[in-house]
Design a protein that fits this description.
Chains A, B, C: It catalyses: adenosylcob(III)inamide phosphate + GTP + H(+) = adenosylcob(III)inamide-GDP + diphosphate; adenosylcob(III)inamide + ATP = adenosylcob(III)inamide phosphate + ADP + H(+); adenosylcob(III)inamide + GTP = adenosylcob(III)inamide phosphate + GDP + H(+). Chains A, B, C: Pathway: Cofactor biosynthesis; adenosylcobalamin biosynthesis; adenosylcobalamin from cob(II)yrinate a,c-diamide: step 5/7; Cofactor biosynthesis; adenosylcobalamin biosynthesis; adenosylcobalamin from cob(II)yrinate a,c-diamide: step 6/7. Chains A, B, C: InterPro entries: CobU/CobP, P-loop_NTPase. Chains A, B, C: Its EC number is 2.7.1.156, 2.7.7.62. Three copies of one chain form a homotrimer. By secondary structure, chain A is of the alpha/beta class. In chain A, 45% of the residues lie in helices and 21% in strands. Chain A has a single domain, classed as Rossmann fold. Chain A has six helices and seven strands; from the N terminus they run βαβαβαβααβαββ. In chain A, helix 3 runs parallel beside helix 5, helix 4 packs across helix 6 and helix 5 packs parallel to helix 6. The interface between A and B is medium-sized, with 27 and 24 residues.
């Protein structure tokens, strides 16, 4: 059974760097499963910066929606990094897909992995209640998803100022 | 003296579930002190979902404002769950009440409890400074209340992705 | 080499009080380096409240921009409290200064200190993504700064409801 790690934290908390370090410590070809859509300039710049930091020794797979499929296709190649669940969830909601069965399918898929997976997610519920109903719905969905993935994970780390706090 | 536990965390972090588990582990009739006002559809749906999750073996008391009274009246019946301080504080402010003496009275009341109490609260100060002055005032009040209740508590847990981190 | 401590947390989490306690436990004249600009009523009131809490035995230095200089000038006098990096960063950005070299210079300066320094900063990235591009840029800069200062620090504490969680 593949070892599953969830790395969560705020925006720019250093969670991707931490997750990369976890994956880099494992043997085998590393697979980076990017859920970002390179739609806008901000996101393109961020993707390029992350790729430069990872360097060689990584294969990149872009998969904004079919994360379960990307995990199935990459299993056995080497350790996988999913960066990140927050963009995946936003992509599902933006595409008008029902996120709940998709999230349940992801959790079920994690239990089937033979190789290790490190998943990055965001903490988005520690600010003031958003005035916008869509933002509240997203915040609720993200919190639910993090709980379910954390339950399925063997390890959970909460990153603060670049430093991991072990929560599981 | 009643054992006091504060369970804090972000929105949808699993803090209510965690607090319920803490109360369920204690002997006696469980009292759920709900501070929510079932005013709108979102809130009604959430209250119904929480009630279904708790199941039988719980008595529900609805008290949006007089939390000190609700604690006094329920003391000795069994372990109490206060869910949550954030809605209570919002209700006080919305009712135009001066929250500071009420918060001080709550902290004083906690020291008088004979039976155990588990209180749920939210972390709301880890986002960008709100543009809205009322939201800033609420954020300040919530932070102050959490500090005072944490000081009065025997245990404090910070819930991240459904998992408790012991902070006291 | 001066011992460097970063105390981070949300708004009104009790991080300043915690940082003051850390500095107060050290021998020597305490220097409070305030980065706040007493421009508006809210901020003036907060500064006065913090000063009253600290009491005697503190020298206050107001330095909204030249934090590196303030640290150099105060080194050797006694333990220093920098409150806080978030206002300093906001001041730099508001003044149209390029924050990245200034942040790098601060990190380099921390390595040169002979006496101890406790720095307060905020976690601002655990809410919903701000709609405002400037707020997003600030959030990113703050996250980056916290990571770099945490890397340079000997100790890092994350304060939740007034209680410190040791992260380094």
């Amino acid at each position: 059974m593949g070892h599953i790690v969830l790395v969560t934290g705020g925006a720019r908390s250093g969670k991707s760097t931490r997750a990369e370090a976890r994956v880099s410590a494992l043997p085998g070809e590393r697979v980076y499963i990017a859920t970002a859509r390179p739609d806008d300039a901000e996101m393109r710049e961020r993707i390029a910066r992350h790729a430069a930091r990872r360097g060689a020794g990584w294969v990149t797979v872009e998969e904004p929606l079919d994360l379960v499929g990307a995990l199935a296709r990459s299993d056995g190649r080497g350790p996988r990094l999913v960066d990140c669940l927050t963009l995946w969830l936003a992509n599902l909601m933006f595409a008008g897909r029902d996120w709940e069965p998709e999230a349940a399918a992801l959790v079920a898929a994690l239990a089937r992995q033979q190789g290790p997976v490190v998943l990055v997610s965001n903490e988005v519920g520690m600010g003031i209640v958003p005035e916008n109903a869509l933002a509240r719905a997203f915040r609720d969905a993200q919190g639910w998803l993090n709980q379910r993935v954390a339950e399925a994970a063997d390890e959970v780390e909460f990153v603060v100022s670049g430093l991991p706090l072990k929560v599981k």
